[in-house]
Design goal:
Pfam families: Apiosidase (PF13204), Collagen_bind_2 (PF12904). The longest helix has 18 residues. This protein has 478 residues and is an alpha/beta fold. The strands form five sheets. Strands 12, 13, 14, 16, 17, 18 and 20 form a seven-stranded antiparallel beta sheet that branches. A six-stranded parallel beta sheet has the order 7-6-5-4-3-11. The chain folds into two domains: 360 residues, Alpha-Beta Barrel (TIM Barrel), CATH 3.20.20; 97 residues, Sandwich (Immunoglobulin-like). Helix content is 26%, strand content 18%.
């Protein structure tokens, strides 16, 4: 344990470095993803849905390099994108398919996809690759593009992708913000999955991205190696732990990830305030000359998700058993450029959004869960003795499998009473980790066992804290 603590202090003061890429697999206990060396893989994703579609190579280099430095490990991007992905050309004037036919990929378009995937791999990043946004498969929520897939062409398209990218560091994600709501759609996704696996030969993991407040665990498909849920954007303090608890009880057991929680800077319940039938979508007077939302606009009456929401949902997910978390920013997912069109109005353009506070918080997440890898602990709410609610007062906790440490997240810096009997030994060393700046306090020694109340250094909105309790002699580490 002493070596872990030395690593702790080293990581607190140093930047996250680029890692080496390997193919991934499911751990033996089916609780997390691991690399070829059997080490837990920390999924810290970013939703860059329009990456292939809207950025040129210089822009893509800038984006990927920035995200790698910030501690991200996975980039989620779509080949046939949501925003008129079939009809609107990419940065080089290329559309992905000839005659809207999945059997006729435009290789010029895919050369750009090749470049981005290879660049990501050089930076130690994985691309979670969506073959298509799900509006192009039969569903009950039409998008801009037509439905173009059937079982036959889905299989052929899957084979094309599997052969082209099967040896790259890819994680396959079928779907795209749609549930599988009819047998025809199910047949298409099954055919696409089979086509990919035929050429990929099972090298890379696969999952499915559902609609908001749903999980892929509903489908129980053999080709789904790990489950994805989208906790969504309905309100602040989404009970993401409920999704985790539900997926943890599924059989057969599979790891699970919140691959689309609330995005930083996206309006809360944005769909209530957008006229999807209108060309403008929102009143033009709330936008400035760059098509950005004016600072004083109150059109979105429930406000916007913030970096605080990012941290809350991330820690609630991880300490509830999730093996990954995906960040998102409203401007980045759609790669919004000043003066351009938007799907949902933005506060900044995509480049400025790369430096939003929630994105920098990912680096701090990376640090703490590199120190305490996912395979070392599991969710355990029995540590918490005081009453906690199901909104902003919820307290999430996890206990080491060997009982040597506990992690407790306090969204509002609220006092917490902990059952110290749960940890082995009669000496407990207490650390406070500030998830906003990635700083660790000096340790405090507690020599009693049983119930003990901990008071964080500060409390209230934007005063969240991670309480770390350990049983090793950390006080002696220089």
């Amino acid at each position: 344990m002493k070596s872990i603590v030395i690593l702790m202090f080293a990581l607190i003061v140093n930047e996250v470095v680029f890692g080496q890429s390997t193919s991934l697999k499911i751990s033996q206990d089916k609780r997390y993803i691991e690399d070829q060396d059997g080490q837990p893989f920390l999924w810290l994703g970013d939703t860059a849905w329009e990456l292939f579609h809207k950025l040129n190579r210089e822009e893509a280099d800038h984006y990927l390099t920035k995200r790698a430095k910030q501690g991200f490990t996975v980039i989620q991007a779509v080949v046939l994108a949501e925003d008129d992905g079939l009809g609107k050309p990419n940065a080089y004037g290329e559309i992905p398919l000839i005659d809207l036919d999945p059997k006729k990929p435009n290789l010029k378009y895919f050369e750009h996809v090749d470049y981005i995937i290879e660049k990501a791999e050089k930076l130690g990043l994985y691309i979670a690759l969506l073959p298509t946004w799900a509006d192009k498969v039969p569903n009950n929520r039409p998008g801009i593009d037509p439905v173009i897939f059937n079982e036959k062409n889905a299989s052929i398209y899957g084979e094309f992708l599997g052969k082209r990218y099967g040896k790259r560091n890819i994680i396959w994600i079928l779907g795209g913000d749609r549930n599988i709501d009819n047998d025809t759609a199910l047949g298409v996704w099954q055919a696409m999955a089979a086509g990919i696996k035929k050429e990929d030969q099972g090298r890379n993991l696969m999952s499915y991205h559902p609609a908001g407040e749903n999980s892929s665990s509903s489908y129980r498909e053999d080709w789904i190696d790990f489950n994805i849920y989208q906790s969504g954007h309905a309100h602040r303090y989404m009970p993401v732990y409920r999704f985790a608890e539900k997926d943890a009880e599924q059989f057969p057991r599979k790891p699970f990830i919140d691959a689309e929680p609330a995005y930083e800077d996206i309006p809360v319940r944005f769909w209530k305030y957008i006229d999807w039938e209108s060309k403008e979508k929102v009143p033009v007077q709330i936008l400035d000359k760059n098509n950005l939302l004016k600072a004083k606009s109150t059109h979105f009456k429930e406000g916007f998700f913030t970096d605080h929401d990012v941290r809350v949902h991330a820690y609630w997910n991880f300490l509830s058993g999730a093996c990954g978390y995906t960040y998102g920013n409203n401007a980045v997912w759609q790669m919004f450029k000043k003066g351009g069109s938007f799907t949902i109005p933005c506060l900044t353009d995509w480049k400025e959004a790369l430096n939003r506070p929630g994105a920098h918080d990912i680096k701090h997440l990376h640090k703490i869960f590199s120190i305490f890898p996912l395979g070392m602990f599991k969710a355990d709410q029995s540590l918490i003795l005081n009453t906690y609610g199901t909104d902003n007062t919820y307290i999430s906790s996890a206990l080491a499998k060997d009982l040597s440490f506990a992690l407790i997240y306090l969204a509002l810096g609220q006092a917490v009473k902990v059952d110290l009997h749960k940890l082995k030994g009669d000496k407990i060393f207490t650390f406070w980790y500030n998830p906003r700046i990635g700083k660790l306090s000096t340790p405090t020694l507690i020599t009693q066992t049983g119930p003990f109340e901990f008071i964080p250094p500060s409390s209230g909105i934007n005063n969240d804290w991670l309480l770390i309790l350990t049983t090793s002699d950390l006080i002696q580490v220089p």
